[in-house]
Amino acid sequence: MPSAPNDPCPCRSGEQFAACCAPRLDGSGPAPTAAALMRSRYTAFAVGDTGYLLRSWDPRTRPATLELDPAQRWLFLEVLATEAGGPFDQAGVVEFRAHYRDAAGRAELHERSRFRRADGAWVYVDGDLLA
């Protein structure tokens, strides 16, 4: 977890953690867009917040439990494209690359993720892994 609210946010938005993903993770501010939710979910992976990951997952596709690999260190995020997912949309898609390091070395997760609104809040539905 960032050590102070003024630290850069792990999602690399350019904002301070307190003004970016912290309100999503602590429940004090909902994500206004699908991309903002995706960024906050990346940050949750980076800081090991499985509770937030499960809460922000669509109940229809959410796993019962989630275990993160403690040896996996998330390095940075690239948002490549978005489709819809704005403040007035009901669904959206975000394509991203999340770079990480684990016991095998550096790697990346390239995904096209689907999001929807559930009870007014954005939730992660599922995604397709891309090469």
TrEMBL record:
Enumerate the spans annotated as YchJ-like middle NTF2-like domain. Answer: 33-127
The record's comment on protein family reads: Belongs to the UPF0225 family.
Cited Pfam families:
SEC-C, YchJ_M-like
Classification via InterPro entries: NTF2-like_dom_sf, SEC_C_motif, YchJ-like, YchJ-like_M
Mind telling me what this protein is named?
Answer: UPF0225 protein EBN03_01875
Organism of derivation: Nocardia stercoris
Name the SUPFAM superfamilies for this protein: NTF2-like, Sec-C motif
- Per its UniProt entry, which superkingdom is the organism in? Bacteria
